[in-house]
Every structure is written in C-alpha cells, then in structure tokens.
Amino acid sequence: MPKYNRKIVSKLPKVKTTIFTTMGHLAQKHNAINLSQGFPNFEPDPSLIDLVTQAMKQGYNQYAPMAGVMELREMIAAKIEQLYGRHYNPDSEITVTIGATQAIFTIITAFVGSGDEVIVIKPAYDCYEPAIEVNGGVPVFVQLNNTDFKIDWEVFRSKITPRTKMVIINTPHNPSGTIFSKEDMLELQKCLENTDIIVISDEVYEHIIFDGLEHESASKYDGLASRTFVCGSFGKTFHITGWKMGYCAGPVELMHEFRKTHQFNVFSADHAVQKALASYLKEPQHYLGLNQFYQEKRDLFLEGLSTSRFKIKPSKGTYFQLVDYNDITQEPDEVFAERLVTKHQIASIPISGFNTKGIDKHLLRFCFAKTNETLERATEILSKL
Ligand SMILES: Cc1ncc(COP(=O)(O)O)c(C=O)c1O
Predict the structure, then answer these.
(1) For a pocket test of ligand 1, which of 107, 129, 149, 233 has the largest count of ligand atoms closer than 8 A to its C-beta?
(2) By CB distance 3.0 to 4.6 Å, which of 268, 331, 357, 384 could disulfide with 64?
(3) Is residue 90 lining ligand 1, measured as CB closer than 6 Å?
(4) Closest by alpha carbon to 214, among 121, 355, 317?
C-alpha cells in the first residue's frame, strides 16, 4: 500500500489492545487453558441451531424489521413482565440489537454529547468508557470497595452534577460477581429523584445468579424504569456469544430517540436468528434452568480450589469467579497473570485494568463457563501454585 502522510487525530487516544485480546493470544501461543475471555467452550442446544437452520430454509434471509421481529419482541416483553412485573410495549419499547454491546453503544450515542458526564461504576466492563469518549462525553468514576465490591451511595451521590446525563450500572456484575441488592436499587432510585438522568442497566447476566438470590432488574422499580434502558444478551443466556444477539427495553420516549440512531447504525439484526429465538423463548426452562447449570459449574470450580492458596468469596452471579492470590505472591496482577499463562498454561484476566487508577488488589478473574473437564484440569493446575 503506498503510504500517504496524513495526520490522524485519534478520538480514542487511550484505547490500546485490550487485556482480553492479549490474554487470548498468549493462551493460544502457550497452548493454555483459556479461562480469560467470557464465553462458553461448549455448544448451544442443538434444537436452537435447528430452529435457525429451519428459519433460513423458510426464507428469513433478508432484512428483519428495524426494531426486530415482532414475535421476538413479544416474547421478550412477556418474559420481562412475568419475571419483573413491568409491561413494555413490544411495538414501541423494545428493540432487538447486535448484542448488548450495540445497545449500549447506541444508547450512549443517542443521548450523550460533548461535555456530558456519565457515571460509571468501577471496576467496569470495558465497552462503556470508549463509547462515552468517542461521543465527547466525560466518564465519571465511582470505585466499588475492592474487598466486598459494595457501592458507597454517599460517594455516588457526590458525583452527580448538573452535567450528569447518564449512569451505567451492571448487575450481576462483571468482573466481581457481585449483585445489586434491593436496597442498592432503592438507593439508586432515590439518588436520581428529581433529575433527568438516564440509566443504562446492563443486565446481561440476569439468568446467572446463585444461591437462591434474586436478580433486581431496574425494570422492577417505577422510579428507575421510567428513566432506564434495560439491556439483555441472548449470547450469555443461550451459550451463543458468537451470534451477537441482544436487546434493550425502555420507556417509549427514550426508545423513540434510540431508534433514530439505531436505524442508521445497524438498521436491523439477523433475521433467521430472531425467528429462532422467538420460538426458543416459548419454553421458560431454557432460561430459568441457567442459574442451576452455572451454579454447579461455580461449585465444581470452587471445590477444585478448596485446597489451593487462593482466597475466594463465591461469586453471586455471572460466570466469573474472582480469586485473591496475596498468599501466593505479591507480584502485580498483570505480571502474575502473564506468568500463569506462559509458565503454567492457564489464562485469566487481571483486575487492575478494570479499576480507577489501576488499583491492584492482587485479584484475577476466571471464567467458569467451561466444560467440567476443562474446569477440573484448570483447578488441578491452580491448586499446585
Ligand atoms: C457486563 C457485560 N455487558 C455486556 C456484554 C456484551 O454482551 P454482548 O456479547 O451481548 O454484546 C458483556 C460481555 O462480556 C458483559 O460482560
């Protein structure tokens, strides 16, 4: 390619290769067990694959409606109403998206402009900040306590200013595996009273929650539902992260504005997959059984680590488990994670990169959405450290 000497002024000067990519490459290079990035290493239900094939054969191969296939939106509305008691109009208050990531990016793009502040709770999943910054917004951080990952609502309240446009929450929480309680949701609701602040509630792990705990969806709370986009992901729920299929639900006036951006961004999501998911959702056990499925995997992982030197608080939700390695070494988390993958063939994610100011409490995140055999091999290695 002939070189043209142009000056590129990056809109995202801070963005570098992510830790997920780095760890993924290292895992491949060293033939390591990869518990870093969050995706299952087992197959989805074959009947779901059959439904997609069938839909393709039936001719659902052209553009889907902009907001999503109506049967799917109806199924999403029915599911939310049944689980959380909130009715969203499938016609005007639910949109099917290319994964939760696109829903989040589009919401931020539709509402956040130059100088608008967006409160992000750290440690945070990595797609929020670049989406805010590329739109000229300013992320404002509230750091969770790094021991129990609880939020200090007084600190949160102190970050609200007249420029606060949006708040992003995530429960069950990646990477910590904690969840927001009912009290947390009520505190959030109270903090936002008498403001126009919009909320993104990232609930992609809503069906992965353990020990009988309940998912507190923002949609359950009147004062939150009226200002919130709830974002979901079929990728997480049905072991199909590669299909990139999600949705958001929100009040009509917010959704109207969302769709103005959505239609010129992606227009619509995969047609055949939407048809298949509409059928698959008819059986509630397909998503209600997930808590138990992943709880067994979490317990297998924890049991395998019970004689290890890691200090562990069992994850309450998501398919991630944090481990504290202070009794093994005082190396920085990125150094230890790299040593684990290169010398012990096991890949994880160091947590400091998710925190404000790179706070390093010597925590690693392991993904347990893996076959039992993989988890057993992984814990055998980790127990010997
Ligand atoms: C907290 C959180 N939000 C959103 C996503 C992205 O979901 P999707 O794959 O549906 O875009 C992930 C994926 O890891 C996540 O952990």
Answers:
(1) 233
(2) 268
(3) no
(4) 317
Closest atom of ligand 1 to 174 CA is 1
d(CA 351, CA 46): 35
Determine whether the shortest distance from the Cβ of 101 to ligand 1 is under 6 A: yes
Whether 241 lines ligand 1, by a CB cut-off of 6 Å, is yes
- Residues 179/316, Cβ–Cβ less than 8 Å: yes
> Does 317 sit in the ligand 1 pocket, CB within 6 Å?
no
The predicted-structure confidence for 287-298, as pLDDT tens digits, reads as follows 999 999 999 999
Count, residues in the chain:
385
Helix (H, G, I), strand (E, B) or coil at 365: strand
Looking at residue 112, its pLDDT comes to: 98
Structure tokens at 291: 């808590």
Spans of all domains in the chain: 19-44+286-383, 59-284
Q: Write down the CATH number for the domain with range 59-284.
A: 3.40.640.10
Determine the distance separating the centroid of ligand 1 and the alpha carbon of 331, expressed in angstroms.
29
Range 19-44+286-383: architecture per CATH: Alpha-Beta Complex (3.90)
pLDDT, tens digit, 9 for 90 and up, residues 87-102 = 999 999 999 999 999 9
Q: Is 204 near ligand 1, meaning CB less than 6 Å away? A: yes
227-276 pLDDT per residue, tens: 999 999 999 999 999 999 999 999 999 999 999 999 999 999 999 999 99
Tell if the pTM clears 0.90, that is, is over it. Answer: yes
**Could you tell me where the DSSP H helices lie in the chain?**
19-29, 46-57, 70-84, 99-111, 128-134, 153-158, 182-192, 222-225, 234-237, 252-265, 271-280, 285-288, 290-304, 333-344, 372-383
Give distance in angstroms: CA of 241 to centre of ligand 1.
9
